[in-house]
Amino acid sequence: MLSYQKHERVLLKTHPEFDERWLQERIAEDTSILGLGDLVLLERERIQEKAGRLDLLLADPEQNRRYEVEIMLGQTDEAHIIRCIEYWDIERRRYPGYEHCAVLVAEEVTSRFLNVLSLLLGTIPLIVIQLNALQVGDSLVLDFVRVLDQRSLRRDDIVETKLASVDRSYWISRSAEKVVSVIDGLLAIINEKASPQQRLNYNRYYIGLTDGTRSRNFVTFRPRRQFVHLTAEVLEPGPWAERVEEAGLSASVTDDKVQVTVAPADLKKHEGLIRELLHEAVDLHQQE
Question: With contact defined as beta carbons under 8 Å apart, do 232 and 219 qualify?
């Protein structure tokens, strides 16, 4: 039976035993404690030419994304913010084949610096995490709280209807006819509720939606040879990902959206669950 136990905040910056290196080791042992998913540790103390060392380089292989993590014990300051963004910029220029996201972990994130970082909204993919080290009895608990998450950069939906457009045959050649047919079925489910009706918008990097006047990418599709990655904007992507995985499908959360892998056989087998997901995405979009 659970019982209440009062905790006490511990500042690692002034603690004689638990220092930044110790914190790095805990994250390296279990990257999921950051709350960014089950990431892979690529390197610690990664040397940056003429710019010091990056604390942690993490990766999400499924999303083809890398996280440049800078750790700051104590209060945030200008130097660590600049360093965090500088390391992110170096890595993205060096390895442009991946998506990159800067991550700043600090014990104290002041409202002043949070306001400054918010000015970067839409220009730099940046996550700020506040670390709360809590002593509970004889144990130390690490609580990581995301206070800023701006992984999605600004997108120009109007321009996207005009630029880099391709056609259906392009995606059939890149994936397979049966996979593109799955997207047709998913579109039909969307249009059970969507008003106005949506059409597929074939872009070079993904298949989105359009109402005929502009892009409406509350649901997007990325076809592969054997399946399609469906990404949908829903109110609670985390619980949705759990539900989908419990049903036997592969799912993840990215950019505060749920991504589901759908193979041709999955559409019929899990039609009810997929319909519920897509209808929620439609409802959320039409409330905006």
Answer: yes
